C-alpha cells in the first residue's frame, strides 16, 4: 500500500472572493468596516449588560455571551482576510488553517447552542414569569470570617495565583519557542497550562477583590458566569488529561506508529472535542440552575460559586439537577478515569516486557509526571464531591476544594518541569535567549 505523509505540505493558499486587483481595495474597505461595526456593536452590548444592574437577568446574560461569541467568530476569519488584502499574501500555514477551522467550528457551534438556550429561556419565562430576576446577589463567606485571617488569606492566595499564572505561562512560552518540544505530548501540556491559568482566573481574583474591599457579595449573573466558566475549564482539563494518557499509551505501546497515529489533525481534534464537550456540559448545568428559585438564605460557604452549594440554597425541587450531576459525573468523570486506568494497565504490561532495566526506567519516567497530575486532579476532585454528600461541613469542604482549584494548577508546572530533562533543557535555552536579547 502506498503511504503518504499528511504533514509534508506546510501551507495553503486562500484565493478569496476575487483575484481582480481593482476589487481588493473595495473588499478591504467593505470587510474592515463590517468587522469594526460587528466588534464595536457587540462590545457595547457586553459593556451595557455588565454595567447596568437592571440587565442582570438570564436573557441578557445569554445575549452578552452571544455577543462575545459573535466577536470571536468573526475574528477567526475576517482579520486574516484583511491582512491578506493589504499584504497581497494569500498564504496560510497548515497549522494556521487547522487552528482557524477549529475555532470556526467551535464558535459556530457555540452560537447555535446559545440561540437554543435563549429560546428555552424565553419559554421558561412565559411559563414561569417572575422567578428568574428575584435574586440580586449571593454572599461568598470565603474560607474564614475571622478579620485577623483576611490579610493572611489575601497574601497567600495572591502569591499562589501569581505563581500559577507565571509558572504555566512560562511552560506555554517555552513550548512555543522551542522546536524540540513541538510534539503531541507538549502540545497537550501547553493546553493544560492554558486551562490552569483560565480556571484559577475564574475563581481567585474575585476572592482577592472581596477580601480587599471587605465585601462578600457576588451578583446573580456573576455567580452563574463563574459556575459556567469553572465547569467548562474543569471539563476541559479532564479531557486534556485523557488525551495525554492516550498519547502516552500510543508512545509506549505502539512506538513505530506513533507519528502516524498522533498526527496534528488528531491532536487538534482531541482538544476541540474536549472543549466542545466541556462547554456543552457547563451550559447544561447553568441552564438547569436558571429554573431554580431561592430562599432568604443566600450565603455560600465557599470562596467561589460552586454548583453543589447553589443547589443546596435552592427552595425549588432539585431532583432533576441532582440526577444530571450524577449522570454527568459518571459520563465525564468515571468513564474518562476508567480510560486512563485502562491506558496505564496496557502501558505497564508493555513496559514489563522490556528486557533491560534502563528501558523500563525510561518508559516509566515518561509517564510519572502525568500520573502525579492525574492523581492530584481526580483524587482531590472526587474527594471533595464525595465529602459534600457526607457529614463533612460546608466550610471544611470549601477548604478541601482548595486542593483541586488552587494547589493542583500551581503544582502542574513544577511537576512537569522538575522531572523532565527535555523541559529543563528548553527552559535553560529560553532563559538564555531572553536574558541575552539586546
From TrEMBL:
Cellular localisation: Cell membrane
Source taxon at top rank: Eukaryota
Occurrences of domain G-protein coupled receptors family 1 profile (ranges): 41-129, 167-416
TM spans (from-to): 25-47, 59-79, 91-115, 152-176, 188-207, 227-246, 266-284, 323-342, 363-386, 398-418
Gene Ontology annotations for the cellular component aspect, listed alphabetically: plasma membrane
Protein name: Olfactory receptor 7G3
Membrane topology listed for this record: Multi-pass membrane protein
UniProt-listed CDD domains: 7tm_classA_rhodopsin-like, 7tmA_OR7-like
Species annotation: Fukomys damarensis
GO molecular function, one term: G protein-coupled receptor activity
One Pfam family, short name: 7tm_4
Keyword terms, alphabetized: Cell membrane, G-protein coupled receptor, Membrane, Olfaction, Receptor, Sensory transduction, Transducer, Transmembrane, Transmembrane helix
